[in-house]
Write a structure and sequence with these properties.
20 strands; 2 domains; Molybdenum transport ATP-binding protein ModC; transport; ATP hydrolysis activity
């Protein structure tokens, strides 16, 4: 991997809160999502990378250069906050060029050419002579992004840039961020509390909890194979069961607590290997809603684990239908809209639910 940023053993004490042993490695081609709830340290991490806080320990290496103790202006890093923080007394053009003007580079022909390309690509060329008070939320955010990248920094830090936007504007901004990432060749670290946003944009992801990284990896791997109950819950693990790992005739099974269901035999790659660890065999099991099948007839495959339940309610989304059922527990299955139209389900109807063993994932209870 052509490493752009290497963070190792980063510690920061900020009053009663601390960043603890942060380790991140990313390439220029990465769109790195940092996901976590409010107060977990996401913004503090960005500001430490940007140089607004000095860490108590660890190292930050950007393009092979140790920037751990450098001031912000010597780091070549762009930073854009959730609130666009534009100067109200400057025009859009003056806001974008503000940092360059302070360093005497606003007249640099390369920066001017890049400005022309940026404002055209970001559809703000008609706004250059306007003031921030006359801009919409989406326009302000695009201006803020242009200001952060006009000097072509190798790394762009984004602090929840989409959270204040309406759904339509948010979708357009997501596409714009993808284009910026690819066209500008920027490495991006983007923090958010929205796991859907993280899944749609990220090529890699870290989930933050109380100032420490709980899990990192490819978004798809974290989504389907969360390492902890915290990660599963934050990524909206729809069917999360408490139970016990059993060994029957040399094979591992998961027995549901307070219910009749027995799931298995468990494949080795479903997380069941953690049952070899000493201590309690109490575990959680995750079945993603998209992997829980539903129909009026039982499954055809003899390997499927099946049971019956009653439909409680149905929630339609733009891309799928969530069907909530009750029977041997509470369940959520996600159907394509085509499958939902085919079944024409109604509340109270009895249905068959089933899952294939390869779609079971076992998680430590603590």
């Amino acid at each position: 991997m052509n490493t752009l940023l290497e963070i190792s053993g980063l510690h920061l004490n900020a009053g009663k809160f601390a960043l603890k042993n942060i380790n991140i490695s990313m390439a220029r081609s990465d769109y790195f999502m940092v996901l976590g709830p409010t107060g977990c340290g996401k913004t503090l991490l960005l500001e430490t990378i940007a140089g607004l806080y000095m860490p108590a320990g660890g190292a930050i290496i950007l393009q092979g250069r140790d920037i751990t103790r450098l001031p912000p202006e010597q780091r070549s890093i762009g930073l854009a906050y959730q609130d666009s923080l534009l100067y109200p007394f400057l025009t859009v053009k003056e806001n974008i060029l503000f940092g360059s003007r302070g360093r005497g580079k606003a007249g640099d022909p390369q920066i001017r050419r890049h400005l022309e390309q940026l404002v055209e690509a970001m559809n703000i060329s008609g706004l250059l002579d306007r003031y921030p008070a006359g801009l919409s939320g989406g326009e302000r955010q695009r201006v803020s992004l242009a200001r952060a990248i006009v000097k072509r920094p190798p790394l762009l830090l984004l602090d929840e840039p989409l959270s204040a936007l309406d759904p339509r504007t948010r979708g357009a901004m997501q596409e714009l961020l993808r284009q910026i990432h690819l066209r500008e060749g920027l490495g991006i670290i983007h923090v958010t509390h929205d796991f859907t946003e993280a899944m749609q944009l990220g090529t890699c992801m870290a989930v933050l909890k109380n100032g420490a990284i709980e899990q990192r990896g490819a978004p798809c791997d974290i989504f389907f194979h969360p390492a902890t109950v915290y990660v599963a819950g934050f990524l909206q693990g729809e069917n999360l069961l408490a139970g016990t790992i059993l060994t029957i005739n040399g094979r591992r099974w998961f027995r549901q607590d307070n219910g009749p269901l027995l799931f298995g035999p468990l494949p080795l790659d479903c997380g069941a290997a953690i049952a070899d660890n000493p201590g309690s065999q109490k575990r959680k099991m995750l079945i993603r809603a998209g992997n829980l099948r539903l129909g009026r007839q039982p499954p055809e495959s003899a390997n499927s684990i099946s049971w019956t339940a009653s439909v409680s309610r149905i929630a339609l989304n733009r891309t799928h239908a969530d069907v909530y059922c009750h029977g041997s527990g509470n369940w959520q299955a996600s159907l394509s809209l085509a499958r939902w139209r085919e079944l024409q389900l109604s509340a109270g109807e009895r249905v068959n639910l089933w899952v294939n063993p390869e779609n079971l994932h076992i998680i430590p209870e603590n």
